[in-house]
Write a structure and sequence with these properties.
Length: about 325
Amino acid sequence: MGNSKIITDSDFKNYITGNSKALMVEAFINWQIDNWELAKHNYIGLEAIKKKEFHFDGFNLQLQFNPGRIVSTSAKIDAKSIGERPCFLCSNNLPKEQKALLCDTNYLLLVNPFPIFEQHFTIPHFNHIPQEIFSSFGDMLLIAKELGEKYTLFYNGPQCGASAPDHLHFQASPKNAIPIEKQTGFLLKNSEVIYNSESVSIYAVKNYLRNLFLIESNNIFAAQEEFNKLYNSLKEITNFHLEPLINVLVTFDKAWRVYIFPRKAHRPKEFFFEGDEKILISPATVDFGGLLITPRQEDFDKITKGTIINIFEQTSIDDTIFENIIKNYSL
Ligand SMILES: [Zn+2]
């Protein structure tokens, strides 16, 4: 890998207003937007995007109409298509205007030129290695802590929304931009505690349209250990030969919160329909976090609460399997 992409704070020192990593990252994106026409165009364009809110019993969900996400939403992720395209996360293939900050020694932090959020980052590993959470979860916790003052970290499984399943990466969004982050009170009230120790608690959340586990921990080793147990339980019960279908979101504020969404499918059947019945939503972590993205106006106009319930029913793990994991875990 050539290192010409990595820049230091001296390159954008006029933008820096503080000395934490999160503040440096914020300065970096402002600098990139000012010095990269595509990013500038797309981040300014984000100000005009349309949003809607849907209210459910005790929580809400947002829908965002974002035409810039058409490539990502409809991305072909079969092995043949992936093998035939140049990897857009390998540093040798980045556009010349795109620069990188070092992140947790083995990762690069890049500005995402097709944003969902007013600050949106992609954090690929240095090397072209497959998207895989089991061995990289510890890195995810460390990066979430490093950026936690201002940002939330998320991971899309290779078959659950990652548009580069062949290159390990996380993404980061501004803290609290994803609705679930502000709904933790509701989650805790609507959950069953399935494990509790001095340093870690695990909750199984119900009544939220989609089933999820929430791990709270102030100890990185304990968090990792419990994540591994859940992962293995999920893998065993779903009998999935590859990585179980999951999306993961991590926040850090004195302690980690890890939101794990087990899935049964990546896309709802409507994604593959033609004509009026088609709905172009390809749910990933952001969508499961309560911010649904559609790149087409017609879908934005026709999606109802019923559509959202239907999409989660088709893509979230079934209640019976969820209950089995809970039972298995408590043994
Ligand atoms: Zn790559």
